[in-house]
Specification:
Blueprint (H helix, E strand, L loop, with lengths): L11 H12 L5 E4 L5 H6 L8 E5 L7 E5 L12 H15 L7 E3 L5 H7 L3 E5 L10 H17 L2 E4 L2 H8 L7 E2 L6 H4 L13 E5 L9 H11 L4 E5 L6 H9 L3 E4 L3 H9 L3 E4 L13 H9 L3 E3 L13 E3 L3 H8 L19 H16 L2
Parallel strand pairs: 1-3, 4-5, 5-6, 6-7, 8-9, 8-11, 9-10, 11-12, 12-13
Antiparallel strand pairs: 2-3
Helix pairs in contact: 1-13, 3-4, 8-9, 8-12
Length: 367
């Protein structure tokens, strides 16, 4: 049960699932994407998405299926929304021929499925959503669901030491730390420069969302780079229309999503890689995947003093805040080095993390 769709923008769970499937020929996975919410899409002036019946994802010998349910009404209008979604996932699981599955949750909102089925459950915590800016009713629901999972899940995994620390007080058993990583060998193979990457590019790769991205800092940095370089944002855009217009008016180039393999070329050919994140209790809980991806390509990095980058033992990483952030980037644009020199900093790979997760799943299966 994922917080993200199985798409071309790969995140933690896709890297892990893909490697686990390749390592274990007997493994089968039903990847449940977030439910489609056509009513919310309409109110947000987006094209409504529909559901997806269990369908095979190419490349895994038919052992990986993706599925997306449909949420017809918001929870405030239908108090049984979570129950209905849980039943839908149960039916899809049965249709996929899975009679005794392990339930792997990234989404604490899927706790009702674990309660309803009694399936042995692994809760994989990737973000502290209780520290995010959410409506009080949603925070209360998340607090209830996560509390149940921390008490009842057969195993709990977290991606950052801070998440382990925060959640350990609510968990009667241990929480295992399995951080994020990078596909090291792939990121070190030289790629051609993307045609749409401007000269003098200060590049950020990640989902554009105000939970993480400091919009005002990006705006100020783009203005400071005017005539010298360009701030480039790459990734799914979850910003409001107003924030998007603000950034574009300041000269920011928003390229949108790119395939996970194509992202590498943007990273390798950036003059400088940037992390313009807000520093909040939410971002303090993160183990940013970009920490590993940036390190693997060996380009200079300028980051606000956020978790992960703040503790990086890498001379290429510069920490800066406020006006110093733009000044540090301007000093590196344009870069005298036109291609990555590689890196001698040790970087963890996804194979290592997938092996650790396979062991956890095996323990849960025996539960």
């Amino acid at each position: 049960m994922s917080l993200e769709a199985w798409d071309d923008v790969w995140r933690r769970n896709q890297h892990l699932v893909s490697r686990m499937l390749h390592a274990d020929p007997d493994l089968r996975v039903l990847f449940v994407e977030p439910a489609a919410d056509p009513l919310h899409d309409m109110f947000s002036r987006r094209r409504p998405r529909g559901g997806v019946a269990p369908q095979t994802v190419p490349g895994y010998d038919g052992r990986l299926l993706r599925f997306r349910a449909v949420k017809l009404l918001p929870r405030r209008l239908d108090k049984r929304t979570d129950e209905r979604l849980a039943r839908t996932v149960q039916r899809a699981t049965a249709a996929a021929g899975m009679r005794d599955p392990v339930l792997w949750l990234n989404d604490p909102g899927a706790a009702p499925l674990a309660e309803r089925t009694g399936w042995p459950t692994l809760y994989d915590i990737t973000d502290d959503w209780l520290a995010a800016d959410r409506a009080p009713a949603e925070l209360e629901r998340l607090r209830r669901d996560e509390g149940w999972l921390l008490t009842n899940a057969a195993a709990v995994v977290a991606c950052s030491p801070e998440l382990v620390r925060r959640k350990a007080v609510l968990r009667p058993g241990p929480i295992q730390l399995i951080p994020n990583a990078v596909d090291i060998d792939t990121y070190r193979v030289p790629k051609p420069r993307p045609a749409d990457l401007p000269d003098g590019a200060a590049v950020y790769v990640g989902t554009l969302h105000t939970d993480r991205l400091d919009v005002a800092l990006c705006e100020a940095t783009a203005s400071a780079l005017h005539g010298r370089g360009t701030l480039v944002l790459i990734g799914p855009n979850a910003l409001s229309a107003g924030d998007t217009v603000r950034l574009e008016s300041a000269g920011v180039v928003i390229l949108g999503s790119r395939r996970h393999d194509d992202v590498i070329g943007y990273l390798q050919h950036a003059d400088v890689l940037i992390v313009p994140h807000v520093v909040t209790p939410f971002t303090e809980s993160l183990d940013p995947i970009k920490l590993y991806e940036y390190a693997a390509v060996g380009r200079p990095v300028v980051a606000t003093p956020v978790a992960g980058f703040r503790d990086a033992h890498d001379a290429r990483v510069t920490l800066a805040a406020g006006p110093e952030f733009a000044a540090a980037i301007s000093a590196l644009v344009p870069s005298p080095s036109r291609f990555p020199a590689g890196t001698d900093v040790p970087v963890a790979g996804w194979d290592e993390r997938a092996d650790a997760m396979r062991r956890v799943v095996a323990e849960v299966r025996r539960h």
